[in-house]
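User: Hi! I'm working on a homework problem where we have to compare a predicted structure to a textbook description. Could you give me the structure for the chain below?
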Amino acid sequence: MVIFNAKDDGEPMSPKIITVANMKGGVGKTTTSVTLAETLTVNNDFKVLLIDCDPQTNATLMLTGENAWEKARNEKRTLNDYFFWPFIYNKREPLTSFMVENASDLVISGTDRTPDLAVVPSHPDLPQTEREYIRRLVLQGQDLNGVRDHVVSMMQNGIEELGDRFDFVIIDCPPGISYFAEAAILLANIVITPVTLDYVAKYGLDRISQFLTSPVNNRDGRRRSYYALPTKFRNLEEQRARLDLIKNHHPVLPVKISDSVQIARAAYWSSTRRTFASKYGSENAEEIKLLGEAVLDKMTELV
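Assistant: Happy to help. Predicted structure tokens:
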């Protein structure tokens, strides 16, 4: 197994960051985030933290169920609270204080072990939180670039302080533009962009590419890569033609995720733990496993 979080001198490093983003909604970002997190833990034995930046909170609900999410909200352990803690208490708490451990409803096949998977829950108020966050920072003398830098710094510090607790952090982004989404993309080692191979698929990829290659977004010299991931694939002639067009302009992962009822059903959290194959179905489970392996291959190229 390739180990990504150890320096040559043996010192622990912060985890590698995989951001799942597309400006367009309905392309399978959350499903990609959750399935990737689960395959990396179950099939590759990595330790994974998923940060849910989408106010729809679907990734949180898929990994924790409603009761655990409600408990996290009541105890003020969401991404909202992580960012607002310094305003309320005049100090910053570590990201681990806002994590829900033992996320996922999976059990590792043939064992009684559960995946080493945690989630930082999102909250429906995240857009309002962002606006209030901007307002307060502007009142403190920050300009808008400074606000984004502050969000990046908060997220980066939280992840770096994890040390070797996790091998990977996966960040599920909302559709559209937000400071949280921009920070997640800027911090990523790899950006995965799910696409449904419709008419506008290429334009979403164009925007991700333009954002990543813009000189203003590359002042840190950080090496980033992005890859399209075909989702909801039905092997139609029109889809194949659009995929060929995309391949002429953008890097594409060598995996396609099928348009599957079983994957859609797997979005519903189960109080009874299940194996990876029983949750996703054997054919879909193999596709998701290949997705994890493809991402690991691309990540290895960055090491």
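For your comparison, note the following. The longest helix spans residues 282-302. Residues 193 and 205 are 7 Å apart (CA to CA). Good luck with the assignment!
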